[in-house]
Amino acid sequence: MASDGGYNSVDLTWSPCSRQQLLTFFSEGKAECVKDLPAMEGSLQDWKPGLYYGVDDQCRIAFGSTAKACSFTNNDLPACRFLSCHVNLDDNSSCKRLLVPLLDGTECGPNQWCLKGRCVSPDDLSSPDVVHGSWSGWSEFSSCSRTCGGGVALRTRQCNNPRPAFGGNDCEGPDIEAELCNQQPCERTQLNFMAEQCSQTDNHPLYLPPNSASFYTWIPALGFTQGDEQCRYMCQSDGENFIVSRGSQFVDGTRCETDSPPPFGATAACLRGRCQLFGCDGVLHSGKVRDICGVCGGNGSSCRLISDSYSGGQAREYITFVSVPVNATQVHIVNRAPLFTHMAVKAGEKYIVSGMGSMALNMTHPSPLDENRLEYRIHLTPDLLPEMEELLVPGPLQQQIKVQVRRGNVTKLFTRLCATVFISRKSCKIHENWGLCLMFDT
After folding, report:
1. List the disulfide bonds (predicted).
2. 36 among the known binding-site residues?
């Protein structure tokens, strides 16, 4: 508390200046207690304030809420003898120095702490007390990072109450809690949301080679990156063969692709530049998954397995052979002889797979990043002829779909299409073209 920047070599005693100021402030002898020397008893964490107030905290106390510790050092000045801070929020090129020492217990280097104006290690102390780290309280939850499509709200805590020191242990447990929010669907797909972020950097030049600005159209780098790398704002130049990070990270809640398929019902989303898994309950790392019926945390008893095959159809005409209802899960339909037949899928009045008289190419609707997606795959022979069509819908379906078959000129070729579907245990309705009971929600 010395106003002239002097440092009292006797730890935790009052300077004459501070004593006089307090005496004047309180007056009439009410501050006689400041003349007493404190007892050096108890553990270090009881009397080392730097364990609780780091350099950033000390800068904010000295210079205001936007101040932070200086990001560079002067080797000619002892680290613990002066408080050096960036004072202006947008200026990291200069530091303001206050001629007061850092608080005892302030970390000044790897396994080093300030003590009486010196940067010391445990070996320099005669009998250092180990100080184990302890968590601060949780912050308030942040606002949702997205207005629709499933953003992230998070809260954090810090290992600074006190900070670990003198060989003490770090805090155990996570420093962040997060959950999905605003999960109502957007009009655009999850891939569109990533694409919008990439395109926002189209006007930002890329210097290849140095000192030569080049401009590109940027699109998502799906298929080139996945996992944490994908969340680091990785975009592909449209029409080119290279990918570049276009910023520090995608917006929290941007969907990402994990290295291996996530559990049924889990959501992979970017959080602080990393691809993280949220359970079906929307909570980070909860481990909650959907059962085979699509129920979060269920036991698989609310649905039944339906399986059958279909060998009918008309030449040169799309015929619906099964209507898959809302909330159906694990839909798997296979055509093992697609040389003269092919499947189509209709959602409402719109075809999303084929429908124009020819076999579709491999596709995922609406995008590989959407949870409620439909995957259509063509498997080829070594001669590159179609060997099998496969339709996969993990579900739960959000909209009824109609699966159709179109046969070529060979009307007497009775190719069988096989299907398995898990459907809710509710009232059933027999489809006229498929002799099985399909459960429809009522």
Report:
1. 59-85, 70-95, 80-114, 108-119, 144-181, 148-186, 159-171
2. yes
